[in-house]
Design brief:
The chain is of the alpha/beta class. The chain is built from 8 helices and 11 strands. α1 runs parallel beside α2.
Length: about 250
Amino acid sequence: MESKRSPRDKWITIYGRKPVLEALHDPKLSVAKLVVADNATGQSLREILQAASKYDVPVERATATRVKWLAGNGKHDQGVVADVDAPRMTPLEEFVRARGKRPTNVFLLDGVTNPGNVGMILRTATGAGFDGVILPRAGTPHVGPLVIKASAGVAFQAPIVNTSTAQTAVDFLRTAGYHVYGLSARSQESLFKADLAPRAVYVLGGETHGLTVRTDSDLQIPLHANVESLNVAIAAAVVAFEVTNR
């Protein structure tokens, strides 16, 4: 029996009048619904409501407090939020079941906290043809305006895989037969020379604490001239294109 998907496994919620209006007018995006604060007024809101009417997007009215809660941001919602369809977003269990035994490559973000890095990783992984990017709800920024901007809008089409924590994801994937690789400057094994498993999760450690989950083996990106490490989004790009070009 198909499990009932949570709204946050179907939609990316955006807020602010300019982003919402742009999403409504973007032919590549499908807006599922708007929620507007009952005290919201002004010309920009009238434009949003006209666009919603033009494209048959349902509009709900709610208290300003509820709109702030839906936005997850008390400062910048400007009285309006929109749920935008994210057709490739899926919960982890559903993703693994759908992939079956096929070769599969995914990233797991383990405490990557900078929204700019998350957005760039989503853009790179999608462009390289990676099968998924696992974003744990604990420790990863919500896919909001900063992540979307850094992804250059690709976040809506990215293969985002939702899970509760990085540890939960590693345990589940290992049981499902995935090999868990960590990216670590301390490893002796080069990414470019390693035999890579056909079903693999590549764990990208956070900017501050690095890897926190137990991996099966670690890989390094060889660096020269005493350069100690790469920015996590750059490292993700190197991994994504090396793996998919094999």
